[in-house]
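Thread: Newbie trying to understand structure tokens

Hi all, I'm a second-year student working on a class project, and my supervisor (Dr. K.) asked me to get a predicted structure for one chain before our next meeting. I've only ever worked with sequences, so writing a 3D structure as a token string is new to me. If someone could post the tokens and maybe explain what I'm looking at, I'd be very grateful. Here's the chain:
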Amino acid sequence: MFRVMIVDDEPMAIKRFESLLNKTGKVSLAAAYTDPEDALRHCRHVHVDIAFVDIEMPGMNGLLLAEKLQEIDPMLEIIMVTAHDQYALEAFRAHAVGYLLKPVSLEEVDRLLDRMEKHRGRQESGAERQLQIQVFKQFQCFTD
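---
Reply by user tm_fold:
Sure, no problem. This is what the structure looks like when written as tokens:
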């Protein structure tokens, strides 16, 4: 099961999308935000696997938010959820793993989550992860 976050400036859009996600049975909602700045402030304290991010929001747009979220957690998967198809190329340049157009259907969300589960399964069954430890100057640990 994936732990997810939703960021959308429209509370009703969050409610509708949360309902769709719950119907898949593949996610648990860790957090939902109408303000991108709140999402950034809290993302260090709330671990999630996937962030569903709207693109057009006042203040910080979803593309910039996605970049900042991935700076904090490089393993975080970003899926853009928007009513505008013209941002697809920019979204994938920002390393989004998915792009959903509103109104989103249950089938689209389910198909995307299935694909992500398969990808996660391949990663987990792949080669063992390597751990690198640096002890000189400053103690640091890295994984591949």
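A couple of things are worth pointing out once you decode it. The two ends are 23 Å apart (CA to CA). The beta strands are 2-7, 27-33, 50-53, 77-82, 98-101, 131-134, 140-143. Feel free to ask follow-ups in this thread.
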